[in-house]
Write a structure and sequence with these properties.
Elements lengths: L7 E4 L5 H16 L5 H6 L2 H12 L9 E5 L5 E9 L10 E9 L8 H13 L6 E7 L3 H9 L3 E8 L8 E8 L3
Parallel strand pairs: 4-5
Antiparallel strand pairs: 1-2, 2-3, 3-4, 5-7, 6-7
Helix pairs in contact: 1-3
The structure holds coenzyme A (COA).
Length: 180
């Protein structure tokens, strides 16, 4: 059972959109059931999400906001990360970038895929003027937060409240300086 470790990472192509959407939805359901409404998680639809991802991963989106996919040794997508300019009004966008999403197929957790994706994002921004990365995580996402903290990310104190109708989970912001 479970997926193999990551064999390689490459930029996402339009054809990866469905796999990306399926991993995103699977990871949300596996990781967020404790604090997001079941009705919301049940309503997530791979085709609908895949349509969004087709728009995001097209060549026109690079290198401004690239998406990276992690492939196993059968070339199946096991995880992805989407990064780009910071969206927060309180942060000077100069010298900063954001990781919008990073998800690994739940059958492949704890095999180093998430770390490999973070490394690919870091390498992408190294050599540009970006000196700091930021990201938002659900406060209740203890596992995801343990992952980021293990990778050297630090809370910066910023918080925001999301609206999922019947639930209003808090998100917390993390930052990490790029080496060098
Ligand atoms: C968070 C996530 C991206 C991590 O990906 P991953 O491939 O499982 O992570 P890695 O195997 O690279 O983990 C590296 C280290 O991070 C830490 N870590 C990872 N998952 C952890 C967990 N569930 N609990 C505690 N520590 C964890 C460990 O120290 C781990 O090293 P180890 O396995 O040798 O102990 C993945 O679990 C995921 O998609 N989770 C659901 C969605 C999510 O939370 N995404 C982040 C959105 S904000």
């Amino acid at each position: 059972m479970g997926g193999a470790a990551v064999a390689r990472i490459r930029l996402a192509e339009t054809d990866d959109a469905e796999a990306i959407a399926a991993i995103q939805i699977g990871a949300w359901r596996a990781a967020y059931a404790g604090f997001l409404p079941a009705a919301f998680l049940d309503s997530l639809d791979v085709e609908q999400r895949a349509t969004q991802w087709r728009g995001r991963v097209g060549a026109a989106m690079r290198p401004e906001s690239p998406t990276f996919v992690a492939l196993d040794d059968t070339d199946a997508v096991r995880g992805f990360a989407h990064t780009g300019p910071v969206r927060d009004d309180d942060l000077d966008p100069t010298g900063r970038a954001e990781i919008y999403t990073i998800y690994v197929d739940p059958g492949s957790w704890r095999r180093g895929i998430g770390s490999a994706l973070l490394e690919a994002v870091t390498e992408h921004w190294a050599g540009t003027d970006v000196r700091e990365l930021v990201l938002w995580a659900f406060e209740a996402n203890a596992d995801g937060r343990a992952f980021y903290e293990r990778m050297g990310w630090q809370l910066d104190g910023a918080r925001q409240v999301d609206d999922f109708g019947t639930a209003h989970p808090v998100e917390v912001r993390y930052r990490r300086s790029l080496p060098g």
